[in-house]
Design brief:
- This protein has helices at residues 22-31, 48-58, 89-115, 122-129, 136-145, 152-160, 175-184, 200-210, 224-237, 265-271, 277-282; strands at 7-11, 36-39, 61-69, 78-82, 188-191, 214-219, 240-244.
- The protein is an alpha/beta fold and 290 residues long.
- The protein binds adenosine monophosphate, fe (iii) ion (2 copies) and zinc ion.
- Adenosine monophosphate binds at residues 17, 42, 69, 135-137, 153, 156, 161, 248, 251, 253.
């Protein structure tokens, strides 16, 4: 059954806040006709080995990736990092630090929810996450199961979205630090779903100076005007227009696997932006392309 497009550069598994094991995710993608898939779990590359093994069996090339959700006044700035190495200990140290902060934040939100009259247990949240990077989707699932909200998605709107009563801000990287981390570890950074950024026009030059190489242009819930705006930014800043489903398999968030058309030349263009780690480390943090 081929019902999706062949390239999907934004997917999540149970190693973070997706609902499927990495191997099951790749099986589902393959069944939908995907042949190139980025596994982009939040703050971890721990699903890559299983995804690659399944991908080899089913003819899906897996691009090892992560998505770094940042904290700043710019709104929801998420940075995708492509072509990372799961065996990179320096990168893993940073990702572990981010995951530890995710855990503490979720604990604080569990306490806040209980104080607000929506008791859930941390133990149940951890069970739902099954060892993956903790996040608000696991809280949403626990709130739904406990009967505190009528649907998984409504947990965000009423309780845990930014500005909602149980929201706790994150401790983590700024957008620029996230871009610089990806570049320093030999990866290729792309700005995820730019419509969630506040002040995109001001933020872009800062991130480009830090080494941003792509912008997620093809995205399920992007209106055509947003896709056009991203293409304009891509031309202005010499960025690769990337795209993907942001499939999680939970609630209404994201599109189906392979549900977003991504032009075939995207992969070669992204590969051309790869730099070896040593060379990337010597690149000044701020400045133009060499
Ligand atoms: P966190 O990283 O813990 O702040 O959680 C952010 C994640 O929650 C995103 O990566 C999405 O997977 C999910 N998310 C954010 N907003 C919503 C929403 N309104 N409805 C459903 N899922 C959402
Ligand atoms: Fe997510
Ligand atoms: Fe995101
Ligand atoms: Zn995502």
């Amino acid at each position: 059954m081929t019902v999706g497009y062949p390239i999907d550069l934004h997917t999540h598994s149970l190693r973070s806040d997706g609902a499927l094991e990495p191997s099951a995710l790749v099986e589902r993608a393959a069944a939908r006709g995907v042949t190139i898939q980025a596994l982009s779990d939040h703050d971890t590359l721990s699903g890559v080995a299983d995804a690659v093994a399944t991908g080899e069996r089913l003819g899906v090339r897996i691009i090892p990736s992560t998505e770094l959700n940042t904290e700043s006044e710019w709104g929801h700035v998420h940075i995708l990092g492509y072509f990372l190495d799961p065996a990179d200990a320096t990168l893993e140290d940073r990702l572990r630090w981010l995951r530890e902060h995710r855990g503490r934040r979720v604990e604080l939100m569990v306490e806040k929810l209980s104080a607000l009259g929506y008791p859930i247990t941390l133990a149940r949240v951890l069970e739902i996450a099954q060892g993956g990077s903790l996040g608000r989707p696991h809280l949403a699932q626990a709130l739904f199961e406990a009967g505190h909200v009528p649907t998984y998605d409504s947990a965000f709107d009423t309780l845990i979205a930014d500005g909602a009563p149980a929201y706790v801000s994150r401790v983590g990287l700024t957008p620029l630090e996230a871009v610089q981390l990806i570049v320093a570890r030999g990866g290729v950074p792309s700005l995820a779903h730019p419509f969630t950024v506040n002040g995109l026009d001001e933020l872009m030059p800062l991130l480009v100076a830090g080494g941003l190489a792509g912008i997620e242009t093809y995205y399920g819930s992007h209106p055509p005007a947003m896709t056009a705006a991203c293409l304009t930014l891509a031309r202005r800043y010499d960025l690769v227009p990337t795209g993907g489903s942001d499939f999680h398999g939970r609630g209404d968030h994201g599109a189906p696997l392979g549900g977003t058309f991504v032009p075939p030349e995207t992969i070669g263009a992204l590969e051309a932006r790869r730099r070896p780690i040593a060379a990337a480390t010597m690149t000044p943090a701020v400045g133009g392309k060499s």
